Amino acid sequence: MNKLTTPQRIAAQIQDNTTIAISGNGGGMVEADYLLAAIEQRFLETGHPCNLTLVHSLGIGDREHKGSNRFAHKGMLKRVIAGHFTWSPAMQALVRNEDIEAYCFPGGVIQALLREIGAGRPGLFTHVGLGSFVDPRKGGGKANRITRDELVELIEIDGETKLRYRPFKVDYAIVRGTYADPNGNISLEEEAIDMDVYSMALAAHNSGGNVFAQVRDLVEPGSLNPRHVLIPGVLVDSLVEYRQQEQTYLGGYDLSISGQQKRLSSRDGIALVQHPVRRLIARRAAQELLSGASTNFGFGIPGGIPGIALREGVPYKSLWLSVEQGVHNGLMLDDALFGCARNADAIVSSLDQFDFYSGGGIDVTFLGMGEMDQHGNVNVSHLNGNLIGPGGFLEIAQNAKKVVFCGTFDAKGSKVAVTPEGLTIEKAGEIPKLVSDVEKITFSGDYARQSGQNVLYVTERAVFRLTSDGVELAEIAPGVDVERDILPYMKFKPIIRNPAVMDIGLFSAMEE
């Protein structure tokens, strides 16, 4: 049975008041934008489909037109359930202006919930999210005032408090692959990542919905290696071939990213962060790397740590690296292409990766830090009234054995001189980041203490540590005075015992 059709015919099948799940990741990875553009065009021309619910686990788009931006029109959406929002400022505006309902859940939770929906089970039962903004006691993941339905609830299992994320029907899943045969068998063998395409297709098919797939090439029946088929054709209703499909926004297809080839590499394969303050923070954080450890790097400042480690003799090659998109080891790419790597050792589904994280598979993680407060809480998901979303942050931060948060001491207008002698604060930033209480809790200090996690907060001026008594000032940068440069610009007073001075070698010039 030939399932090949056109994007316009698929767009015409999307009904009003239905739920669409889309797979993808920032940078264009496994983003079925050829199909999404057709759905958007139909809405702009006819006003349909409208009142949709959009579901996606990680950020998708180019911040302007592609990915989730295709749905960011007033009237097109009723509700969004997502793990990350920054790749669509238009979607953020709809949420902020209360034009749509919005639920912000951890990315791994959304992926696992789709699997549970596909398996016909009564939702997702997990510890992930306890104590954070998705805990019903702290908002239940609702992102604005018009969002009222309770999609997550507290339950007790064997005397322990857990969360149950409630299931919902998925009417359509839109996924992407490299190759498909006319029967709908789909291989992602030349894609950068696999993401959650199987669990998403399973959820839609077993909900009685439809699965639509975009692929680069249609091939002869029987020509696909069955080991390469990630979505069997029984789950797929319609296919669209798009020969201009690109692996990422880099353009073309790089087989060292998809794993078919190995590219000759050197330390130059990972760029060295150039901003002096961000470099300083990354250098100090890199001192927390543990030889042989299962290690994770988050987006932002932590993305600069691998480049530091390669150049400063830290045992980079002894680490086992992974990111939530499913990639293990290799030369991790950063910024818009965060989530893929050249010369990876393994690429598994993002859902499998999140299971690894949720169960405590990470020894040490390095994550960004939007705000930190007196309780040791960290916020990266809701900043200055804008919905950012945690992506994979929450599963990772809540379950890693050691967590190293990396962020600047303050924001907006801060001027800091990094010299071989230390740090000079020329102008304080207008926005403090070390506050009395964070806007929303993405990482719970109380949960971390109960779990026995080792937690550090690294800034350019100082390093703080979470203790049983609270947040302690552990180190200060040379040239920095606690009373002059630190305490006046914090909204709480940390525990001060006998802080050490940061290693002066961190402030010296680096070989590029």
UniProtKB/TrEMBL annotation:
InterPro entries: 3-oxoacid_CoA-transferase, CoA_trans_fam_I, NagB/RpiA_transferase-like. Gene3D superfamilies: Glutaconate Coenzyme A-transferase. GO terms for biological process: ketone body catabolic process. Its EC number is 2.8.3.8. It comes from the Bacteria. It catalyses: an acyl-CoA + acetate = a carboxylate + acetyl-CoA. Belongs to the 3-oxoacid CoA-transferase family. CoA transferase having broad substrate specificity for short-chain acyl-CoA thioesters with the activity decreasing when the length of the carboxylic acid chain exceeds four carbons. This is Acetate CoA-transferase YdiF. It comes from Sodalis ligni. The lineage of its organism: Bacteria, Pseudomonadati, Pseudomonadota, Gammaproteobacteria, Enterobacterales.
